[in-house]
Design goal:
By secondary structure, the protein is α/β, with parallel strands linked by helices. Helix content is 29%, strand content 24%. The longest helix has 15 residues.
Length: 453
Protein backbone atom coordinates (compact mmCIF):
# COMPACT_ATOMS: atom_id res chain seq x y z
CA UNK A 1 0.00 0.00 0.00
CA UNK A 2 1.47 3.34 -1.10
CA UNK A 3 -0.10 5.97 1.15
CA UNK A 4 0.45 9.72 1.29
CA UNK A 5 0.84 12.12 4.17
CA UNK A 6 -1.60 14.34 2.23
CA UNK A 7 -3.07 14.66 -1.23
CA UNK A 8 -0.70 15.95 -3.88
CA UNK A 9 2.48 14.25 -2.64
CA UNK A 10 2.89 12.27 -5.87
CA UNK A 11 1.18 9.00 -4.96
CA UNK A 12 -0.19 8.37 -8.44
CA UNK A 13 3.09 9.00 -10.22
CA UNK A 14 5.02 6.91 -7.70
CA UNK A 15 2.49 4.08 -7.87
CA UNK A 16 2.59 4.19 -11.66
CA UNK A 17 6.38 4.07 -11.53
CA UNK A 18 6.48 1.16 -9.09
CA UNK A 19 4.07 -0.84 -11.23
CA UNK A 20 6.10 -0.11 -14.37
CA UNK A 21 9.41 -0.94 -12.70
CA UNK A 22 8.07 -4.22 -11.32
CA UNK A 23 6.62 -5.19 -14.69
CA UNK A 24 10.01 -4.52 -16.25
CA UNK A 25 11.34 -7.18 -13.86
CA UNK A 26 8.91 -9.67 -15.35
CA UNK A 27 6.34 -9.57 -12.56
CA UNK A 28 2.57 -9.66 -13.10
CA UNK A 29 1.25 -6.68 -11.13
CA UNK A 30 -2.38 -6.14 -10.16
CA UNK A 31 -3.10 -2.47 -9.39
CA UNK A 32 -5.66 -1.06 -6.96
CA UNK A 33 -6.88 2.37 -5.91
CA UNK A 34 -8.47 3.16 -2.56
CA UNK A 35 -11.71 5.12 -2.81
CA UNK A 36 -14.17 5.91 -5.61
CA UNK A 37 -11.64 7.43 -8.03
CA UNK A 38 -12.11 6.72 -11.76
CA UNK A 39 -9.17 8.71 -13.15
CA UNK A 40 -6.02 7.64 -11.29
CA UNK A 41 -6.81 3.96 -12.02
CA UNK A 42 -6.47 4.63 -15.76
CA UNK A 43 -2.76 5.37 -15.16
CA UNK A 44 -2.22 2.19 -13.19
CA UNK A 45 -4.18 0.09 -15.67
CA UNK A 46 -2.20 1.41 -18.63
CA UNK A 47 1.18 0.60 -17.13
CA UNK A 48 0.05 -2.70 -15.57
CA UNK A 49 -1.61 -3.96 -18.72
CA UNK A 50 -4.74 -4.97 -16.79
CA UNK A 51 -7.63 -3.26 -14.99
CA UNK A 52 -7.12 -1.29 -11.78
CA UNK A 53 -9.67 -2.20 -9.13
CA UNK A 54 -11.22 0.15 -6.58
CA UNK A 55 -11.12 -0.69 -2.87
CA UNK A 56 -13.72 1.46 -1.16
CA UNK A 57 -14.41 0.52 2.44
CA UNK A 58 -17.39 2.87 2.77
CA UNK A 59 -19.34 1.77 -0.28
CA UNK A 60 -18.36 -1.91 0.05
CA UNK A 61 -18.77 -4.27 2.97
CA UNK A 62 -15.67 -5.88 4.48
CA UNK A 63 -16.50 -9.22 2.87
CA UNK A 64 -17.00 -7.68 -0.56
CA UNK A 65 -13.82 -5.60 -0.25
CA UNK A 66 -11.79 -8.75 0.47
CA UNK A 67 -13.57 -10.56 -2.35
CA UNK A 68 -12.65 -7.83 -4.85
CA UNK A 69 -9.02 -7.94 -3.72
CA UNK A 70 -8.66 -11.73 -3.77
CA UNK A 71 -10.41 -12.27 -7.10
CA UNK A 72 -8.20 -9.66 -8.76
CA UNK A 73 -4.96 -11.09 -7.35
CA UNK A 74 -5.50 -14.78 -8.13
CA UNK A 75 -2.87 -14.75 -10.89
CA UNK A 76 -0.76 -11.84 -9.61
CA UNK A 77 2.84 -11.90 -8.41
CA UNK A 78 2.34 -8.68 -6.48
CA UNK A 79 -0.45 -6.20 -5.76
CA UNK A 80 0.26 -2.47 -5.64
CA UNK A 81 -2.38 -0.30 -3.96
CA UNK A 82 -2.50 3.49 -4.16
CA UNK A 83 -4.17 5.18 -1.20
CA UNK A 84 -6.53 8.13 -1.24
CA UNK A 85 -5.79 11.61 0.18
CA UNK A 86 -3.73 11.32 3.39
CA UNK A 87 -3.32 7.95 5.10
CA UNK A 88 -5.97 8.59 7.75
CA UNK A 89 -8.39 10.75 5.72
CA UNK A 90 -11.77 9.18 5.12
CA UNK A 91 -15.44 10.05 4.93
CA UNK A 92 -15.27 12.31 7.98
CA UNK A 93 -12.87 13.63 10.58
CA UNK A 94 -14.39 11.56 13.34
CA UNK A 95 -13.45 8.10 12.11
CA UNK A 96 -11.47 6.04 9.65
CA UNK A 97 -14.39 4.91 7.42
CA UNK A 98 -13.34 5.01 3.77
CA UNK A 99 -9.70 5.78 4.55
CA UNK A 100 -6.51 4.24 3.26
CA UNK A 101 -5.73 3.17 6.83
CA UNK A 102 -8.98 1.23 7.14
CA UNK A 103 -8.39 -0.63 3.87
CA UNK A 104 -4.79 -1.44 4.85
CA UNK A 105 -5.96 -2.95 8.13
CA UNK A 106 -8.88 -4.85 6.61
CA UNK A 107 -6.56 -6.52 4.08
CA UNK A 108 -3.48 -6.79 6.29
CA UNK A 109 -1.34 -4.77 3.87
CA UNK A 110 2.04 -3.21 4.68
CA UNK A 111 1.99 0.56 4.25
CA UNK A 112 4.75 2.55 2.60
CA UNK A 113 4.39 6.25 3.41
CA UNK A 114 4.98 8.68 0.52
CA UNK A 115 6.36 12.01 1.75
CA UNK A 116 6.83 15.17 -0.30
CA UNK A 117 10.21 16.41 0.93
CA UNK A 118 10.30 19.56 -1.21
CA UNK A 119 10.04 21.97 1.74
CA UNK A 120 11.34 19.96 4.67
CA UNK A 121 14.60 18.55 6.03
CA UNK A 122 15.14 17.19 9.58
CA UNK A 123 11.51 17.99 10.46
CA UNK A 124 10.48 15.11 8.22
CA UNK A 125 11.47 12.79 11.07
CA UNK A 126 8.80 14.33 13.30
CA UNK A 127 6.25 14.11 10.51
CA UNK A 128 6.82 10.40 9.87
CA UNK A 129 6.95 9.67 13.60
CA UNK A 130 3.47 11.15 13.97
CA UNK A 131 2.07 8.97 11.20
CA UNK A 132 3.82 5.92 12.63
CA UNK A 133 2.37 6.40 16.11
CA UNK A 134 -1.11 7.69 15.21
CA UNK A 135 -2.50 4.17 14.74
CA UNK A 136 -0.39 1.28 16.14
CA UNK A 137 -2.46 -1.25 14.15
CA UNK A 138 -1.04 0.02 10.85
CA UNK A 139 1.79 -2.12 9.46
CA UNK A 140 4.10 0.79 8.63
CA UNK A 141 6.78 -0.78 6.44
CA UNK A 142 8.83 2.25 5.48
CA UNK A 143 9.01 5.52 3.56
CA UNK A 144 9.61 6.78 0.04
CA UNK A 145 10.58 10.43 -0.37
CA UNK A 146 9.45 12.50 -3.34
CA UNK A 147 10.56 15.87 -4.77
CA UNK A 148 14.01 15.67 -3.21
CA UNK A 149 16.36 18.48 -4.25
CA UNK A 150 19.73 16.68 -4.08
CA UNK A 151 21.57 13.67 -2.74
CA UNK A 152 22.56 15.60 0.39
CA UNK A 153 18.94 16.66 0.94
CA UNK A 154 17.89 13.01 0.67
CA UNK A 155 20.57 11.97 3.15
CA UNK A 156 19.42 14.53 5.74
CA UNK A 157 15.81 13.37 5.43
CA UNK A 158 16.77 9.70 5.55
CA UNK A 159 18.89 10.16 8.67
CA UNK A 160 16.11 12.05 10.46
CA UNK A 161 13.47 9.43 9.62
CA UNK A 162 15.59 6.45 10.65
CA UNK A 163 16.68 8.14 13.89
CA UNK A 164 13.12 9.11 14.88
CA UNK A 165 11.21 6.03 13.76
CA UNK A 166 13.56 3.17 12.88
CA UNK A 167 11.72 2.83 9.58
CA UNK A 168 13.68 2.21 6.39
CA UNK A 169 13.63 4.72 3.56
CA UNK A 170 13.23 2.69 0.40
CA UNK A 171 14.11 5.51 -1.94
CA UNK A 172 14.09 9.20 -2.77
CA UNK A 173 12.86 10.54 -6.09
CA UNK A 174 14.60 13.67 -7.30
CA UNK A 175 12.57 16.56 -8.69
CA UNK A 176 11.90 15.94 -12.36
CA UNK A 177 9.50 17.84 -14.63
CA UNK A 178 9.09 14.67 -16.70
CA UNK A 179 7.17 13.22 -13.75
CA UNK A 180 4.56 15.96 -13.68
CA UNK A 181 1.24 14.50 -14.83
CA UNK A 182 -1.21 16.70 -16.80
CA UNK A 183 -4.25 17.92 -14.84
CA UNK A 184 -7.58 19.68 -15.27
CA UNK A 185 -10.75 20.36 -13.25
CA UNK A 186 -11.41 16.82 -11.96
CA UNK A 187 -7.74 16.01 -11.35
CA UNK A 188 -5.52 14.11 -13.76
CA UNK A 189 -6.46 13.62 -17.41
CA UNK A 190 -7.71 10.04 -18.01
CA UNK A 191 -5.36 8.04 -20.21
CA UNK A 192 -8.28 6.89 -22.39
CA UNK A 193 -8.22 10.33 -24.01
CA UNK A 194 -4.75 9.67 -25.40
CA UNK A 195 -3.33 12.97 -24.14
CA UNK A 196 -0.85 11.53 -21.64
CA UNK A 197 2.43 10.88 -23.43
CA UNK A 198 4.16 7.51 -23.16
CA UNK A 199 7.26 9.39 -22.03
CA UNK A 200 5.52 10.13 -18.70
CA UNK A 201 5.05 6.43 -17.97
CA UNK A 202 8.57 5.62 -19.13
CA UNK A 203 10.04 8.34 -16.93
CA UNK A 204 8.04 7.20 -13.90
CA UNK A 205 9.21 3.59 -14.24
CA UNK A 206 12.82 4.57 -14.98
CA UNK A 207 13.04 6.95 -12.01
CA UNK A 208 11.60 4.38 -9.62
CA UNK A 209 13.87 1.64 -10.93
CA UNK A 210 16.93 3.87 -10.44
CA UNK A 211 16.03 5.55 -7.15
CA UNK A 212 13.93 3.03 -5.18
CA UNK A 213 15.20 -0.20 -3.62
CA UNK A 214 12.73 -2.54 -5.29
CA UNK A 215 14.08 -5.78 -3.75
CA UNK A 216 13.70 -4.28 -0.27
CA UNK A 217 10.20 -3.09 -1.18
CA UNK A 218 9.22 -6.55 -2.42
CA UNK A 219 10.40 -8.14 0.82
CA UNK A 220 7.62 -6.20 2.55
CA UNK A 221 4.95 -7.42 0.11
CA UNK A 222 3.28 -9.98 2.35
CA UNK A 223 -0.25 -10.15 3.71
CA UNK A 224 -0.78 -10.46 7.45
CA UNK A 225 -2.15 -14.03 7.95
CA UNK A 226 -3.88 -12.98 11.18
CA UNK A 227 -6.54 -11.26 9.09
CA UNK A 228 -8.18 -14.67 8.63
CA UNK A 229 -9.95 -16.39 5.76
CA UNK A 230 -12.37 -14.13 3.90
CA UNK A 231 -16.03 -15.05 3.72
CA UNK A 232 -17.69 -15.29 0.30
CA UNK A 233 -20.26 -12.47 0.03
CA UNK A 234 -23.62 -14.21 -0.12
CA UNK A 235 -25.68 -13.35 -3.18
CA UNK A 236 -23.10 -11.13 -4.86
CA UNK A 237 -22.24 -13.69 -7.54
CA UNK A 238 -24.78 -16.05 -9.17
CA UNK A 239 -24.73 -19.66 -7.94
CA UNK A 240 -25.66 -20.90 -11.42
CA UNK A 241 -24.28 -19.53 -14.68
CA UNK A 242 -27.18 -17.91 -16.58
CA UNK A 243 -28.03 -19.77 -19.77
CA UNK A 244 -29.37 -16.74 -21.64
CA UNK A 245 -27.18 -13.78 -22.51
CA UNK A 246 -28.68 -10.31 -22.22
CA UNK A 247 -27.19 -7.75 -24.67
CA UNK A 248 -26.55 -4.43 -22.92
CA UNK A 249 -25.05 -1.41 -24.68
CA UNK A 250 -22.40 0.34 -22.58
CA UNK A 251 -21.00 3.75 -23.60
CA UNK A 252 -17.19 3.58 -23.73
CA UNK A 253 -15.12 6.33 -25.35
CA UNK A 254 -13.23 9.50 -24.46
CA UNK A 255 -16.41 11.23 -23.28
CA UNK A 256 -17.68 8.27 -21.22
CA UNK A 257 -14.85 6.37 -19.57
CA UNK A 258 -15.85 6.01 -15.92
CA UNK A 259 -16.67 2.44 -14.93
CA UNK A 260 -15.66 0.25 -12.01
CA UNK A 261 -14.28 -3.04 -13.40
CA UNK A 262 -16.46 -4.99 -10.96
CA UNK A 263 -19.61 -3.38 -12.37
CA UNK A 264 -18.93 -4.85 -15.80
CA UNK A 265 -17.69 -8.17 -14.37
CA UNK A 266 -20.83 -8.54 -12.25
CA UNK A 267 -23.06 -7.73 -15.20
CA UNK A 268 -21.36 -10.41 -17.28
CA UNK A 269 -21.52 -12.93 -14.42
CA UNK A 270 -25.27 -12.40 -14.14
CA UNK A 271 -25.79 -12.88 -17.87
CA UNK A 272 -24.99 -9.64 -19.68
CA UNK A 273 -23.35 -9.51 -23.06
CA UNK A 274 -21.52 -6.18 -22.92
CA UNK A 275 -21.80 -4.26 -26.20
CA UNK A 276 -19.46 -1.23 -26.09
CA UNK A 277 -20.41 1.75 -28.20
CA UNK A 278 -19.20 5.31 -28.75
CA UNK A 279 -21.67 8.21 -28.48
CA UNK A 280 -18.97 10.28 -30.17
CA UNK A 281 -18.35 8.17 -33.28
CA UNK A 282 -21.01 5.48 -33.75
CA UNK A 283 -24.21 6.18 -35.65
CA UNK A 284 -26.50 4.20 -33.32
CA UNK A 285 -26.53 2.00 -30.26
CA UNK A 286 -25.66 -1.66 -30.96
CA UNK A 287 -28.58 -3.50 -32.59
CA UNK A 288 -30.45 -5.85 -30.31
CA UNK A 289 -29.44 -4.03 -27.11
CA UNK A 290 -32.00 -4.64 -24.36
CA UNK A 291 -30.50 -2.02 -22.09
CA UNK A 292 -28.33 1.10 -22.33
CA UNK A 293 -25.74 2.15 -19.72
CA UNK A 294 -24.28 5.65 -19.87
CA UNK A 295 -21.60 6.13 -17.24
CA UNK A 296 -19.66 9.18 -16.19
CA UNK A 297 -16.83 10.93 -17.95
CA UNK A 298 -16.24 14.30 -19.58
CA UNK A 299 -19.12 15.01 -21.98
CA UNK A 300 -18.58 18.72 -21.33
CA UNK A 301 -15.26 18.53 -23.20
CA UNK A 302 -16.91 16.89 -26.20
CA UNK A 303 -20.28 18.65 -26.13
CA UNK A 304 -19.98 19.99 -29.67
CA UNK A 305 -19.04 16.59 -31.12
CA UNK A 306 -21.73 14.78 -29.13
CA UNK A 307 -24.36 17.27 -30.30
CA UNK A 308 -23.20 16.94 -33.90
CA UNK A 309 -23.74 13.17 -33.87
CA UNK A 310 -27.49 13.53 -34.38
CA UNK A 311 -27.96 9.93 -35.51
CA UNK A 312 -26.70 8.66 -32.17
CA UNK A 313 -28.80 11.17 -30.23
CA UNK A 314 -31.86 9.96 -32.13
CA UNK A 315 -30.91 6.32 -31.53
CA UNK A 316 -30.62 6.78 -27.75
CA UNK A 317 -33.82 8.87 -27.68
CA UNK A 318 -35.64 6.18 -29.64
CA UNK A 319 -34.45 3.46 -27.27
CA UNK A 320 -35.72 5.43 -24.28
CA UNK A 321 -39.07 6.05 -26.04
CA UNK A 322 -39.46 2.36 -26.93
CA UNK A 323 -39.12 1.34 -23.28
CA UNK A 324 -35.53 0.04 -23.37
CA UNK A 325 -34.09 0.33 -19.83
CA UNK A 326 -31.66 3.28 -19.79
CA UNK A 327 -29.43 3.77 -16.76
CA UNK A 328 -27.18 6.85 -16.58
CA UNK A 329 -24.72 8.29 -14.07
CA UNK A 330 -23.29 11.83 -13.92
CA UNK A 331 -21.97 12.42 -17.45
CA UNK A 332 -24.70 10.10 -18.67
CA UNK A 333 -27.30 12.28 -16.96
CA UNK A 334 -25.89 15.32 -18.74
CA UNK A 335 -25.97 13.50 -22.09
CA UNK A 336 -29.58 12.40 -21.68
CA UNK A 337 -30.63 15.98 -20.85
CA UNK A 338 -32.07 18.56 -23.18
CA UNK A 339 -28.84 20.53 -23.48
CA UNK A 340 -25.34 21.03 -22.08
CA UNK A 341 -23.92 24.56 -21.86
CA UNK A 342 -20.14 24.63 -22.13
CA UNK A 343 -17.70 26.89 -20.27
CA UNK A 344 -18.00 29.51 -23.02
CA UNK A 345 -21.75 29.76 -22.47
CA UNK A 346 -22.69 27.90 -25.66
CA UNK A 347 -25.61 25.46 -25.32
CA UNK A 348 -25.49 22.14 -27.17
CA UNK A 349 -28.70 20.19 -27.74
CA UNK A 350 -28.40 16.56 -26.67
CA UNK A 351 -30.70 13.51 -26.30
CA UNK A 352 -33.64 15.17 -24.56
CA UNK A 353 -34.88 12.01 -22.83
CA UNK A 354 -34.49 13.80 -19.49
CA UNK A 355 -36.17 17.23 -19.04
CA UNK A 356 -33.13 18.81 -17.41
CA UNK A 357 -30.35 21.05 -18.69
CA UNK A 358 -26.76 20.98 -17.44
CA UNK A 359 -24.19 23.73 -17.55
CA UNK A 360 -20.49 24.35 -17.04
CA UNK A 361 -20.82 28.14 -17.18
CA UNK A 362 -21.60 28.31 -13.44
CA UNK A 363 -19.32 25.42 -12.53
CA UNK A 364 -18.87 24.51 -8.88
CA UNK A 365 -17.38 21.41 -7.31
CA UNK A 366 -19.79 18.86 -5.86
CA UNK A 367 -17.91 16.08 -4.14
CA UNK A 368 -18.55 13.40 -1.55
CA UNK A 369 -20.12 10.12 -0.55
CA UNK A 370 -23.88 9.87 -0.85
CA UNK A 371 -26.53 7.85 0.95
CA UNK A 372 -29.29 7.73 -1.66
CA UNK A 373 -32.85 6.48 -1.26
CA UNK A 374 -34.79 5.68 -4.43
CA UNK A 375 -37.95 7.69 -4.92
CA UNK A 376 -39.27 5.31 -7.59
CA UNK A 377 -38.77 1.86 -9.01
CA UNK A 378 -35.86 1.85 -11.44
CA UNK A 379 -34.06 -0.59 -13.74
CA UNK A 380 -31.63 -1.43 -10.91
CA UNK A 381 -33.46 -0.52 -7.72
CA UNK A 382 -36.80 -0.58 -5.89
CA UNK A 383 -38.58 2.42 -4.50
CA UNK A 384 -37.53 3.08 -0.90
CA UNK A 385 -34.27 1.14 -1.26
CA UNK A 386 -31.19 2.92 0.11
CA UNK A 387 -27.76 2.59 -1.50
CA UNK A 388 -24.33 4.11 -0.99
CA UNK A 389 -22.64 6.01 -3.80
CA UNK A 390 -20.36 8.88 -4.70
CA UNK A 391 -20.72 12.24 -6.41
CA UNK A 392 -17.92 14.20 -8.13
CA UNK A 393 -18.68 16.83 -10.76
CA UNK A 394 -18.32 20.50 -11.65
CA UNK A 395 -21.43 20.84 -13.78
CA UNK A 396 -24.71 22.16 -12.40
CA UNK A 397 -28.34 21.75 -13.43
CA UNK A 398 -30.21 24.81 -14.65
CA UNK A 399 -33.31 23.65 -12.82
CA UNK A 400 -33.75 21.65 -9.64
CA UNK A 401 -35.04 18.07 -9.94
CA UNK A 402 -38.79 17.87 -9.63
CA UNK A 403 -40.27 16.07 -6.62
CA UNK A 404 -42.50 14.01 -8.93
CA UNK A 405 -39.69 12.72 -11.10
CA UNK A 406 -36.47 12.89 -9.00
CA UNK A 407 -34.47 9.67 -8.74
CA UNK A 408 -33.06 9.89 -5.21
CA UNK A 409 -33.37 11.57 -1.85
CA UNK A 410 -29.82 12.34 -0.66
CA UNK A 411 -29.43 11.93 3.11
CA UNK A 412 -26.32 14.09 3.47
CA UNK A 413 -27.88 17.24 1.98
CA UNK A 414 -31.59 16.53 2.05
CA UNK A 415 -31.61 17.38 -1.66
CA UNK A 416 -33.34 15.66 -4.56
CA UNK A 417 -31.19 14.19 -7.31
CA UNK A 418 -31.64 13.15 -10.91
CA UNK A 419 -34.60 11.94 -12.91
CA UNK A 420 -36.57 8.69 -12.85
CA UNK A 421 -39.54 7.94 -15.05
CA UNK A 422 -40.61 4.51 -16.31
CA UNK A 423 -37.58 2.89 -17.99
CA UNK A 424 -35.19 5.89 -17.69
CA UNK A 425 -32.99 6.46 -14.63
CA UNK A 426 -30.44 9.28 -14.60
CA UNK A 427 -28.54 10.59 -11.58
CA UNK A 428 -25.35 12.37 -10.57
CA UNK A 429 -24.65 9.54 -8.11
CA UNK A 430 -22.12 6.88 -9.12
CA UNK A 431 -22.83 3.39 -7.77
CA UNK A 432 -20.50 0.47 -7.23
CA UNK A 433 -22.70 -2.50 -8.14
CA UNK A 434 -20.96 -4.65 -5.51
CA UNK A 435 -22.21 -2.29 -2.80
CA UNK A 436 -25.62 -3.97 -2.86
CA UNK A 437 -26.15 -7.58 -3.94
CA UNK A 438 -29.52 -6.76 -5.50
CA UNK A 439 -28.43 -4.09 -7.98
CA UNK A 440 -26.95 -6.27 -10.73
CA UNK A 441 -29.52 -9.10 -10.82
CA UNK A 442 -32.37 -6.56 -10.84
CA UNK A 443 -30.78 -4.63 -13.72
CA UNK A 444 -30.28 -7.86 -15.67
CA UNK A 445 -33.85 -8.96 -14.97
CA UNK A 446 -35.17 -5.59 -16.14
CA UNK A 447 -33.20 -5.82 -19.37
CA UNK A 448 -34.21 -9.47 -19.80
CA UNK A 449 -37.85 -8.45 -19.62
CA UNK A 450 -37.20 -6.20 -22.61
CA UNK A 451 -36.48 -9.40 -24.56
CA UNK A 452 -40.00 -10.52 -23.79
CA UNK A 453 -38.85 -13.35 -21.49
Amino acid sequence: MLAGTTSGVGKTTLTTGVIGALRARGLRVTPFKVGPDYIDPTYHAKVAGQPCHNLDSWMLSREVLRDVFLRATIDADVAVVEGVMGLFDGRSGGGEAGSTAEVAKLLGLPVVLVVDAAKVARSVGALVLGYQQFDPDIRMAGVILNNVASASHAAICREAIVAATGLPVFGALMRDEALRAPERHLGLIPTVEGRVADTYFEAAAANVAAQVDLPALLEQATIDPSRGTPVMPEGLWPSIVPSKRVPIAVARDEAFSFAYPENLTLLEAWGAEILPFSPLRDARIPPGATGVLLGGGFPELYAEELAANREMLASVRDAATRGVPVYAECGGLMYLGESLTDRDGRPHALVGAVPLRSSMSRARLTLGYRTATARADGPHIKRGQTVRGHEFHWSTLDESPDAETAAYDLAESGALDGYARDNVWASYVHLHFASDVGLTPRLIATCLSALGD
